[in-house]
Amino acid sequence: MTASSRRRPWKVDDDGGVAVLPWFVGPDGPGRGRLVANVALSAAVPVLALIDVAQKELPVGAAAGVVGLSLIVGAAVYVRTRWPVALLALALGAVIVTVLADVLSPPLVAASGIAVFTVACVRPRRVSAPSALVAALVLFGAAGARTPGPMTEPRMLIVLVWTALAFALGVAVRTQLAYVDALAERARRAEDTREQEARARIAEERLRIARELHDVVAHHIAVINVHAGLARRAAGRDAAVVDTSLAHVQTAASTVLAELGAVLQVLRSNDPLEPGTEPAPGLDRLDALLATFAATGFTVRTRATGRPQPLDGACDLAAFRIVQESLTNASKHGAGARADLSLTYGADALTLAVGNPVASASAPAPGTLVAPGHGLIGMRERAASCGGSLSAAPDGHGAFRMTAVIPYRPTAAVPTAAAPTGAVPPAAVGAP
Questions:
Q1: Which residues contact 182 (CB under 8 A, 6 or more apart)?
Q2: Paired residues of 234 in beta bridges
Q3: Does residue 286 contact residue 322 with C-beta atoms inside 8 Å?
Q4: Three-state SS for 292?
């Protein structure tokens, strides 16, 4: 907390803007009404003192001294929040001087009460409490010097009561302003937190969309590329091959356009459950996926063990996309035009494993780490998003192996690694 905030507590108005202390605490701040009110309060001290000395018919010298002191104290009252303790000392000093001159001016006593209230409002308790105690003792002594009789005389005790009341009101105002200030600070922090959460959600959604578009496009573009190459080589020699390859190209292009349309429809729709939105793909489409690879001449040997278990929608989508991306990478960068896919249903999770031979010429030097492509990063993120894990590295026997563990139900997401562990050949991670 800065010195200015200790000197002048702040509060927030109903419009959410920052306003200074109420007019009855201090004059600082905009507004003609505030200026008029504080000028009137400051002028009241000398005016009331003048009326008091006129009623008491004091000698000219004593009356002039009281009015002069009241003018000084009244001016100090206007700037009371800047030097509240100095105001209190000045007001008490003026009271002592008037008592020594055998005169007690009630307006100066009232100014002392205003000073006690202001100190309690704008200074911490360790300063305001001793100041109020000193003020009570001085005013009590001044009243005793001008009031004959015992110390329990009501005219003397009322000074202590008014001083204590001024201190209590000041503490109450300070507490209320501190409470409002705390609420405003909490609201500001909550707003900042909401903005940070919104930015985080936007970033997460952008990653999810990029991952989905990559997985949708990469496989089908790979299929189109293979069949376009077959058609080009067979052009003019084997019309049947050309026709079959072009048919596969057309089918793959239609499929990717349909899936992109579904993604864009979800992005543009205000209602994510709008009728006509196709469900996300899952392992129930695995046979159709394998058929697209078989049509390109890429062989996938599949083995499933354990009792199949239903997967949650998010986990099912993650499993399907991981298999799709792994087989796409294997068909594009592997050797031998074949891969092995195994699905192991455990007690709590499904373990997916894809292995494919790698040409020895494409393997990096031992111990070399190669940064993964977006495909491998996307697979890791998909596995981690539902609480699973994924590892991808050479197995040491001329093959590259990807292993993913996908729980049947989403669990707490785990942080994804920036790079895979172990040496990763460029041929295995070169997917777009």
A1: none
A2: none
A3: no
A4: helix
What confidence score (pLDDT) does residue 432 get?
A: 37
Most confident of 33-42, 258-267, 272-281, 306-315: 306-315
User: Which pLDDT value is given to residue 366?
Assistant: 42
Range of weakest confidence among 204-218, 291-305, 329-343: 204-218
DSSP string, 315-383: HHHHHHHHHHHHHHHHHHH-STTEEEEEEEE-SSEEEEEEEEE--GGGPPPTT------HHHHHHHHHH
Give the pLDDT score at 42: 81
Position with higher pLDDT, 271 vs 396: 396
Cα 102 from Cα 362, distance rounded (Å): 108
In whole angstroms, what is the distance from residue 360 CA to residue 103 CA? 110
15-25 per-position pLDDT tens digit: 443 345 665 66
Q: Which long-range contacts (CB under 8 A, 24 or more apart) does 413-420 make?
A: 413/384, 413/385, 413/386, 413/387, 414/384, 414/387, 414/389, 415/384, 416/377, 416/380, 416/381, 416/384, 417/380, 419/369, 419/371, 419/372, 420/372, 420/376, 420/380, 420/391, 420/392, 420/393
Cβ-Cβ contacts under 8 Å for 96 (sequence gap 6 or more): 138, 142
Would you give the DSSP letter of residue 284?
G
Nearest CA-CA partner of 427 in 367, 362, 345: 362
Question: Which of 286, 315, 316, 318 has the alpha carbon at shortest distance from 302?
Answer: 286
d(CA 42, CA 63): 19
Instruction: Answer for the pair 387, 414: CB distance below 8 angstroms, yes or no.
Output: yes
- C-alpha distances (whole Å) from 244 to each of 219, 257, 288, 332 are 19, 20, 17, 20
In whole angstroms, what is the distance from residue 313 CA to residue 202 CA? 22
Dist. CA 303–CA 355, nearest whole Å = 12
Q: Is 53 exposed, middle or buried (0-12, 13-18, 19+ CB in 10 A)?
A: buried
The whole-angstrom separation of Cα 294 and Cα 66 is: 109
pLDDT at residue 359, rounded to an integer: 72
Euclidean distance between CA atoms 51 and 239, whole angstroms: 120
Are 358 and 428 contacting, i.e. CB atoms less than 8 angstroms apart?
yes
Instruction: Give SS3 for 145.
Output: helix
Instruction: Identify whether the C-beta of residue 278 lies closer than 8 Å to the C-beta of residue 289.
Output: no
